[in-house]
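Human:
Care to share another protein and its fold?

Assistant:
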Amino acid sequence: MVSHCTTRKIKSDSPKSVKNFALILKILSMIYKLVQSNTYATKRIWLIKNVLNFHRDIYYTDSQLFGNQAIVDNIINDISCMLKVPRRCLHILSTSKGLIAGNLRYIEEGGTKAVAVPSNIQGIRNLITDAKFLLIVEKDATFQRLLDDNFCSKVSPCIMVTGKGVPDLNTRLLIKKLWDTFHIPIFTLVDADPHGIEIMCIYKYGSMSMSFEAHNLTVPAIRWLGLLPSDVKRLNIPKDTLIPLTKRDQMKLDSILKRPYVTCQPFWRKEMEIMADSKMKAEIQALTFLSSDYLSRVYLPNKLKFGGWI
Protein backbone atom coordinates (compact mmCIF):
# COMPACT_ATOMS: atom_id res chain seq x y z
CA MET A 1 0.00 0.00 0.00
CA VAL A 2 1.24 3.45 -0.79
CA SER A 3 1.76 5.82 2.12
CA HIS A 4 0.47 8.96 0.42
CA CYS A 5 -3.16 7.92 -0.14
CA THR A 6 -5.83 10.55 0.31
CA THR A 7 -7.52 10.10 3.69
CA ARG A 8 -10.92 11.12 5.00
CA LYS A 9 -12.52 10.81 8.41
CA ILE A 10 -15.86 9.20 9.21
CA LYS A 11 -17.08 9.79 12.76
CA SER A 12 -19.62 7.55 14.41
CA ASP A 13 -21.04 10.46 16.44
CA SER A 14 -21.40 12.90 13.55
CA PRO A 15 -24.90 13.25 11.97
CA LYS A 16 -23.30 13.73 8.53
CA SER A 17 -21.30 10.51 8.87
CA VAL A 18 -23.94 8.27 10.46
CA LYS A 19 -25.08 6.68 7.19
CA ASN A 20 -21.56 6.11 5.85
CA PHE A 21 -20.49 4.62 9.18
CA ALA A 22 -23.52 2.31 9.15
CA LEU A 23 -22.77 1.21 5.58
CA ILE A 24 -19.16 0.42 6.44
CA LEU A 25 -20.25 -1.67 9.44
CA LYS A 26 -22.86 -3.45 7.30
CA ILE A 27 -20.33 -4.42 4.63
CA LEU A 28 -17.69 -5.31 7.24
CA SER A 29 -20.16 -7.72 8.80
CA MET A 30 -20.74 -9.33 5.40
CA ILE A 31 -16.99 -9.57 4.82
CA TYR A 32 -16.59 -11.21 8.22
CA LYS A 33 -19.13 -13.89 7.27
CA LEU A 34 -17.38 -14.51 3.95
CA VAL A 35 -13.97 -14.89 5.59
CA GLN A 36 -15.32 -17.09 8.39
CA SER A 37 -17.04 -19.42 5.92
CA ASN A 38 -14.13 -19.23 3.42
CA THR A 39 -16.61 -18.20 0.77
CA TYR A 40 -15.88 -15.83 -2.10
CA ALA A 41 -18.37 -13.38 -3.53
CA THR A 42 -18.45 -10.68 -6.16
CA LYS A 43 -19.31 -7.09 -5.34
CA ARG A 44 -22.72 -8.14 -6.58
CA ILE A 45 -23.94 -10.62 -3.93
CA TRP A 46 -27.56 -11.55 -3.38
CA LEU A 47 -27.99 -13.11 0.06
CA ILE A 48 -31.21 -15.10 -0.17
CA LYS A 49 -32.08 -17.76 2.40
CA ASN A 50 -32.08 -21.35 1.15
CA VAL A 51 -30.80 -20.32 -2.28
CA LEU A 52 -27.41 -21.65 -3.43
CA ASN A 53 -26.84 -18.73 -5.83
CA PHE A 54 -24.75 -16.75 -3.35
CA HIS A 55 -22.66 -14.74 -5.78
CA ARG A 56 -24.88 -11.89 -6.92
CA ASP A 57 -25.11 -8.45 -5.47
CA ILE A 58 -24.15 -6.79 -2.17
CA TYR A 59 -26.11 -3.83 -3.39
CA TYR A 60 -29.33 -5.81 -3.77
CA THR A 61 -29.20 -7.14 -0.23
CA ASP A 62 -30.54 -3.75 0.82
CA SER A 63 -30.80 -1.40 -2.16
CA GLN A 64 -32.63 1.25 -0.12
CA LEU A 65 -29.82 1.35 2.41
CA PHE A 66 -26.97 1.40 -0.12
CA GLY A 67 -28.59 3.79 -2.60
CA ASN A 68 -26.57 2.71 -5.64
CA GLN A 69 -23.81 0.31 -6.71
CA ALA A 70 -21.16 3.05 -6.84
CA ILE A 71 -21.54 3.62 -3.09
CA VAL A 72 -20.89 -0.07 -2.43
CA ASP A 73 -17.84 -0.03 -4.73
CA ASN A 74 -16.36 3.00 -2.97
CA ILE A 75 -16.90 1.56 0.51
CA ILE A 76 -15.24 -1.73 -0.46
CA ASN A 77 -12.27 0.24 -1.83
CA ASP A 78 -12.16 2.27 1.39
CA ILE A 79 -12.19 -0.86 3.56
CA SER A 80 -9.48 -2.45 1.44
CA CYS A 81 -7.33 0.66 1.77
CA MET A 82 -8.07 1.07 5.47
CA LEU A 83 -7.12 -2.53 6.30
CA LYS A 84 -4.19 -2.39 3.85
CA VAL A 85 -5.16 -5.61 2.11
CA PRO A 86 -6.26 -6.35 -1.48
CA ARG A 87 -9.98 -6.83 -2.08
CA ARG A 88 -9.52 -10.54 -2.75
CA CYS A 89 -8.27 -10.90 0.87
CA LEU A 90 -11.68 -9.61 1.92
CA HIS A 91 -13.15 -12.50 -0.12
CA ILE A 92 -14.78 -10.01 -2.47
CA LEU A 93 -14.13 -10.50 -6.17
CA SER A 94 -15.07 -8.38 -9.16
CA THR A 95 -17.18 -9.69 -12.01
CA SER A 96 -14.88 -9.99 -15.04
CA LYS A 97 -15.57 -8.36 -18.37
CA GLY A 98 -12.24 -9.15 -20.07
CA LEU A 99 -11.48 -12.00 -22.48
CA ILE A 100 -8.40 -14.17 -22.95
CA ALA A 101 -7.33 -16.37 -25.88
CA GLY A 102 -4.24 -18.09 -27.22
CA ASN A 103 -1.59 -20.52 -26.04
CA LEU A 104 -2.44 -20.89 -22.36
CA ARG A 105 -3.69 -23.73 -20.19
CA TYR A 106 -4.68 -23.52 -16.57
CA ILE A 107 -6.92 -24.98 -13.91
CA GLU A 108 -9.32 -22.52 -12.33
CA GLU A 109 -10.42 -23.10 -8.75
CA GLY A 110 -14.14 -23.81 -8.80
CA GLY A 111 -14.43 -23.09 -12.50
CA THR A 112 -14.13 -24.52 -15.98
CA LYS A 113 -12.23 -23.64 -19.13
CA ALA A 114 -13.62 -20.43 -20.64
CA VAL A 115 -12.61 -17.44 -22.71
CA ALA A 116 -13.81 -15.05 -20.01
CA VAL A 117 -11.22 -13.77 -17.55
CA PRO A 118 -11.74 -15.73 -14.30
CA SER A 119 -13.27 -13.95 -11.32
CA ASN A 120 -10.83 -15.53 -8.87
CA ILE A 121 -7.37 -14.87 -10.31
CA GLN A 122 -5.77 -16.13 -7.11
CA GLY A 123 -7.54 -19.44 -7.64
CA ILE A 124 -5.84 -20.08 -11.00
CA ARG A 125 -3.17 -22.77 -10.79
CA ASN A 126 -1.00 -24.96 -13.02
CA LEU A 127 -0.50 -22.22 -15.62
CA ILE A 128 1.22 -23.63 -18.71
CA THR A 129 2.11 -21.87 -21.97
CA ASP A 130 4.44 -21.98 -24.95
CA ALA A 131 3.56 -18.39 -25.81
CA LYS A 132 6.39 -16.13 -26.94
CA PHE A 133 4.58 -12.93 -25.99
CA LEU A 134 1.33 -11.52 -24.59
CA LEU A 135 -0.70 -8.98 -26.55
CA ILE A 136 -3.12 -6.67 -24.74
CA VAL A 137 -5.79 -5.48 -27.16
CA GLU A 138 -7.76 -2.37 -26.24
CA LYS A 139 -11.04 -3.13 -28.00
CA ASP A 140 -13.14 -6.26 -28.22
CA ALA A 141 -13.85 -5.71 -31.94
CA THR A 142 -10.11 -5.80 -32.73
CA PHE A 143 -9.65 -8.80 -30.42
CA GLN A 144 -12.40 -10.72 -32.22
CA ARG A 145 -10.97 -9.84 -35.64
CA LEU A 146 -7.55 -11.16 -34.64
CA LEU A 147 -9.22 -14.36 -33.41
CA ASP A 148 -11.03 -14.71 -36.73
CA ASP A 149 -7.68 -14.29 -38.51
CA ASN A 150 -6.18 -17.01 -36.26
CA PHE A 151 -3.46 -14.58 -35.22
CA CYS A 152 -2.46 -16.49 -32.06
CA SER A 153 -1.03 -19.38 -34.09
CA LYS A 154 -0.09 -17.72 -37.39
CA VAL A 155 2.87 -15.61 -36.26
CA SER A 156 4.08 -17.51 -33.20
CA PRO A 157 2.32 -18.91 -30.14
CA CYS A 158 0.98 -16.04 -28.08
CA ILE A 159 -1.64 -15.03 -25.54
CA MET A 160 -4.15 -12.28 -26.24
CA VAL A 161 -6.14 -10.41 -23.60
CA THR A 162 -8.69 -7.64 -23.94
CA GLY A 163 -10.27 -5.59 -21.19
CA LYS A 164 -12.92 -4.34 -23.65
CA GLY A 165 -11.82 -0.76 -23.15
CA VAL A 166 -10.86 0.40 -19.67
CA PRO A 167 -9.77 -2.84 -17.95
CA ASP A 168 -11.51 -4.17 -14.89
CA LEU A 169 -9.69 -5.36 -11.79
CA ASN A 170 -9.56 -9.03 -12.77
CA THR A 171 -8.11 -8.34 -16.21
CA ARG A 172 -5.33 -6.30 -14.62
CA LEU A 173 -4.71 -8.99 -11.99
CA LEU A 174 -4.50 -11.62 -14.74
CA ILE A 175 -1.94 -9.62 -16.74
CA LYS A 176 0.13 -9.21 -13.58
CA LYS A 177 -0.11 -12.93 -12.76
CA LEU A 178 0.93 -13.94 -16.28
CA TRP A 179 3.91 -11.59 -16.11
CA ASP A 180 4.98 -12.85 -12.69
CA THR A 181 4.65 -16.46 -13.85
CA PHE A 182 6.18 -16.39 -17.34
CA HIS A 183 8.08 -13.10 -17.77
CA ILE A 184 7.32 -13.09 -21.49
CA PRO A 185 7.21 -9.76 -23.38
CA ILE A 186 3.91 -7.89 -23.03
CA PHE A 187 2.75 -5.53 -25.78
CA THR A 188 -0.28 -3.26 -26.06
CA LEU A 189 -2.36 -2.60 -29.16
CA VAL A 190 -4.49 0.51 -28.68
CA ASP A 191 -6.01 3.26 -30.80
CA ALA A 192 -3.72 6.16 -31.63
CA ASP A 193 -5.74 8.52 -29.47
CA PRO A 194 -5.55 9.91 -25.89
CA HIS A 195 -8.12 7.41 -24.64
CA GLY A 196 -6.09 4.45 -25.94
CA ILE A 197 -2.92 5.85 -24.37
CA GLU A 198 -4.74 6.30 -21.06
CA ILE A 199 -5.82 2.65 -21.10
CA MET A 200 -2.25 1.55 -21.83
CA CYS A 201 -1.03 3.67 -18.89
CA ILE A 202 -3.51 1.92 -16.57
CA TYR A 203 -1.98 -1.46 -17.42
CA LYS A 204 1.58 -0.16 -17.11
CA TYR A 205 1.40 2.44 -14.33
CA GLY A 206 -2.00 2.03 -12.66
CA SER A 207 -5.06 4.18 -12.08
CA MET A 208 -5.79 6.87 -9.50
CA SER A 209 -8.80 5.01 -8.12
CA MET A 210 -6.73 1.90 -7.33
CA SER A 211 -3.40 3.61 -6.59
CA PHE A 212 -3.20 1.98 -3.15
CA GLU A 213 -2.96 -1.44 -4.84
CA ALA A 214 -0.82 -0.43 -7.83
CA HIS A 215 1.99 -2.84 -6.96
CA ASN A 216 -0.42 -5.78 -7.40
CA LEU A 217 -1.99 -4.50 -10.62
CA THR A 218 0.72 -3.03 -12.84
CA VAL A 219 3.44 -4.33 -15.14
CA PRO A 220 6.01 -1.58 -15.81
CA ALA A 221 7.66 -3.77 -18.49
CA ILE A 222 4.68 -3.37 -20.85
CA ARG A 223 5.61 -1.95 -24.29
CA TRP A 224 3.58 0.15 -26.73
CA LEU A 225 3.37 -1.84 -29.98
CA GLY A 226 0.74 0.16 -31.81
CA LEU A 227 -1.07 1.95 -33.21
CA LEU A 228 1.65 4.61 -33.00
CA PRO A 229 0.88 8.11 -34.28
CA SER A 230 4.11 7.89 -36.30
CA ASP A 231 2.77 4.70 -37.95
CA VAL A 232 -0.19 6.67 -39.27
CA LYS A 233 2.15 8.92 -41.25
CA ARG A 234 4.63 6.19 -42.16
CA LEU A 235 1.95 3.92 -43.62
CA ASN A 236 0.23 6.76 -45.50
CA ILE A 237 -3.11 5.95 -43.93
CA PRO A 238 -5.74 7.95 -45.86
CA LYS A 239 -6.44 11.29 -44.19
CA ASP A 240 -10.19 10.83 -44.56
CA THR A 241 -9.98 7.89 -42.13
CA LEU A 242 -8.44 10.08 -39.42
CA ILE A 243 -10.52 11.88 -36.79
CA PRO A 244 -9.85 15.42 -35.49
CA LEU A 245 -8.96 15.64 -31.79
CA THR A 246 -11.81 17.06 -29.75
CA LYS A 247 -11.25 19.61 -27.02
CA ARG A 248 -11.69 16.82 -24.50
CA ASP A 249 -9.06 14.74 -26.35
CA GLN A 250 -6.61 17.64 -26.25
CA MET A 251 -7.17 18.12 -22.52
CA LYS A 252 -6.61 14.40 -21.90
CA LEU A 253 -3.43 14.44 -24.00
CA ASP A 254 -2.10 17.51 -22.16
CA SER A 255 -2.85 15.81 -18.84
CA ILE A 256 -0.94 12.64 -19.79
CA LEU A 257 2.04 14.66 -21.05
CA LYS A 258 2.31 16.34 -17.64
CA ARG A 259 2.51 13.07 -15.71
CA PRO A 260 5.88 12.33 -14.06
CA TYR A 261 6.30 8.90 -15.62
CA VAL A 262 6.10 10.35 -19.15
CA THR A 263 9.40 12.16 -18.52
CA CYS A 264 10.99 8.70 -18.29
CA GLN A 265 9.45 7.72 -21.64
CA PRO A 266 10.92 10.10 -24.28
CA PHE A 267 9.70 7.93 -27.17
CA TRP A 268 6.17 7.95 -25.78
CA ARG A 269 6.37 11.72 -25.42
CA LYS A 270 7.52 12.05 -29.02
CA GLU A 271 4.56 10.00 -30.27
CA MET A 272 2.11 12.06 -28.23
CA GLU A 273 3.66 15.27 -29.54
CA ILE A 274 3.17 13.98 -33.10
CA MET A 275 -0.50 13.49 -32.28
CA ALA A 276 -0.78 16.92 -30.66
CA ASP A 277 0.87 18.65 -33.64
CA SER A 278 -1.31 16.86 -36.20
CA LYS A 279 -4.45 17.41 -34.10
CA MET A 280 -5.67 14.08 -35.47
CA LYS A 281 -6.30 10.63 -34.01
CA ALA A 282 -6.71 7.21 -35.61
CA GLU A 283 -8.47 4.00 -34.68
CA ILE A 284 -6.86 0.60 -35.27
CA GLN A 285 -9.63 -0.07 -37.81
CA ALA A 286 -8.06 2.59 -40.07
CA LEU A 287 -5.57 -0.11 -41.12
CA THR A 288 -8.36 -1.97 -42.91
CA PHE A 289 -8.31 0.77 -45.57
CA LEU A 290 -4.90 -0.60 -46.60
CA SER A 291 -6.31 -4.13 -46.76
CA SER A 292 -8.93 -6.06 -44.82
CA ASP A 293 -6.36 -8.28 -43.06
CA TYR A 294 -3.50 -5.77 -42.95
CA LEU A 295 -3.43 -5.76 -39.14
CA SER A 296 -2.88 -9.50 -38.69
CA ARG A 297 -1.06 -10.26 -41.96
CA VAL A 298 1.35 -7.30 -42.25
CA TYR A 299 1.27 -4.74 -39.46
CA LEU A 300 1.63 -6.89 -36.33
CA PRO A 301 4.00 -9.52 -37.81
CA ASN A 302 6.38 -6.80 -39.07
CA LYS A 303 6.26 -4.84 -35.82
CA LEU A 304 7.03 -7.99 -33.82
CA LYS A 305 9.73 -9.19 -36.20
CA PHE A 306 11.62 -5.89 -36.49
CA GLY A 307 11.11 -4.56 -32.95
CA GLY A 308 8.64 -1.81 -33.76
CA TRP A 309 7.63 -1.10 -30.17
CA ILE A 310 8.56 1.57 -27.65
Remarks:
- The two ends are 29 Å apart (CA to CA).
- The CA atoms of residues 175 and 194 lie 22 Å apart.
